[in-house]
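Is zinc ion placement plausible here? Inputs below.
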Amino acid sequence: MRNLLVTVATLALTVVVVGNAYIQKKQFYPSVVYITKSNPSMAVIYLQALIIIWLMGKLMQKIFFGELRAAEIEHLIERFWYAITETCLAFTVFKDDFSPKFIALFALLLFLKIFHWLAEDRVDYMERSPIISWLFHTRIVLLLTLLGVVDLYFISFAYHHTITKGASVQLVFGFEYAILLTVIVNTTIKYILHIIDMNREVFWENKAVFLLHIEVLIGFIKVALYMCFVALMIKLYTLPLFAFRPMYYSMRNFKKALNDIIQSRRAIRNMNTLYPDATAEELAAADNVCIICREEMQAGAKKLPCNHIFHVSCLRSWFQRHQTCPTCRLNVLRSSPDSQSTPHAAAPPPPQIPLQNAGVPPLFAFPAWQPPFFPHMPNVNIHQANAPNVGEFQRQQQQQQQQTQQPSQPQMSASQSQPFSSESGTSQTPGAFIDSSFSRQFPFPFMIPPIPPFIPGITTPPLPPQNWNGLSLEELRQMEDTGRRGVEARLQCLRNIHTFLDASVILMQQYLTSATITATSGVTTSNVGSQNNTSDSNKTNETVAATNLSTDTSEPSTSQTMFSNQSFETSSTSNSASDKSENSNQQNEFQDKLR
Amino acid sequence: MAGAALRRLMAEYKQLVTNPPEGIVAGPISEENFFEWEALITGPEGTCFEGGIFPAKLIFPFDYPLSPPKMQFTCDMFHPNVYPDGRVCISILHAPGDDPMGYETSAERWSPVQSVEKILLSVVSILAEPNDESGANVDAAKMWRENREEFNRISEKIVRKSLGL
Ligand SMILES: [Zn+2]
Ligand SMILES: [Zn+2]
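Reply from A.M.:
I modeled the complex. Tokens:
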């Protein structure tokens, strides 16, 4: 409605301007001269031209696209503003050539660009739509042909113009249309691939590979074009600022595509040569559904080194994006040297490490963590002896997801645990860090409660489970057994914590009452010195007790959070955001209780 | 042969219809286009968003599930992890490698293992417990930390608005 109003108003204005000129001059040429000489009339004419272009755009849209989708419009507007900015920047370089013809050429370029973008979006959309009508095909083919011909015409025009008349703004146009032509070529190839894909009865595995290669090729051509253009412009005019943003993006895309192609080729080669085909039993054990496409797996499934099974085709297309296991995020490129040594081993070696320790009662490093109970013990060697365990606790927290394996880990020494943390650089030797922080705190028993070394926000998020899927049933049962014992022991620990907390509350209350007594008695009695002495010693004793209790409880509190995390994890909604807040809530609760 | 993305979306839709999770409804807006979904999320009980019914749209890329979908609330939403224009910013909606908010690891990122259902459940859980490390809406994050009463008041208003009251 508003558009219609604007159109009608502009038309009326134009009629007035032209009519006015004609009435005054009575002849065609004088009227034209009159209009071009008068600035207000020219403004109206420009406005009219703009409206005509817009109307033509609408018409072409109706012919070639029909109704635009919301996403297309959004995409279009975003790109349009960038294009406008770049056009304005280009004007600054060619301010000498500035003329109505010049503006018209830029307007036309922008106008054609919009249709190139829309064509690109439409062809991408093909893959998403279940039904493609004949109308769609006709429109796309017509549009692509038309745009291709127009691009070619302008390129050849710019070429001849530059050859015959020397470098001018036509250089920019020629180059811009060349870039647009690459877009058309890319879109056409995609369109053809989509058509082939749609007419096939079975899934076309190589389509993604083709697409990736074409992306690299087109990317290369674009980068080369931009390079030539920038070099020419610098030589002939100045730095073409307006070309920098698209140049940067095309270079980035090209680099990414090239990188993708190299990495994915490696991953796919690994998959074809190193990873074994999944057997029927393995497929049945993994309830036969490929997690990528959610479809059944019959043949053509591969098993990754982490024992997760997927369709070959699904894996291939995933490896083109990321070279990790979709389920556990094991980096398949980094882990390949392991599997190279034993290419056809069914089970990877790592699970043996936890099994060596499986017989040992789990987690019970924890009761052994005693120094805080005995405040007057020389604590230097004790805390050193226990430091690896502390480290293990932190590591445990990081590896929450390795649920079953977890209980057996605390018994391992730091060096034994190295193979597990090889994936992450962050969990190198947490024991060392804790050790030093503890030795700073413990030589002074009369301190305020030390800050718990495990602040949940700081610990790195959990590492993915890597290898416990490869265990046999027997081994799993064994681990489950130790797991249950771990849980029981943890419950026991929680009970202990509860007792300690109660005790600490009582102590704090005593401390408070004695503190108030001291305060009042300090005022009333004349015998200040001795009173203060006794109450001071009272106070310090209690602080010691409180310190020890709180160090102790801060320790179990990590296992408490860990425990809750585990139950949280097993409820299968693994959301780390709530995990973290869970952690900090727990921590807060404990700190509140302590207060 | 229809695209892998389309088939997977159809499978997920079927799954959501036959076995809907509590408090969540989701499905394609039209049969023509399976790549744009609408979802209704019920505010989790016991939170300031309790009782609200929040519509959102999900836009799937053509290479789904290799790339994550985009999610945007189509109602008013004032939340630390939702941009003022309604776009949801949670880590599982970002592929490993693109890092708008500086998440530390790729462990909680998008992978084909995730699904519409998991995304929506994650959104429910951030409604219950905002993650104020990723400040998509800085004002909301600040208010959530410092002035919870005001935050609760605003969310109550949003809840009422979402119910058309
Ligand atoms: Zn599959
Ligand atoms: Zn895996």
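Short version: The CA atoms of residues 64 and 474 of chain A lie 65 Å apart.
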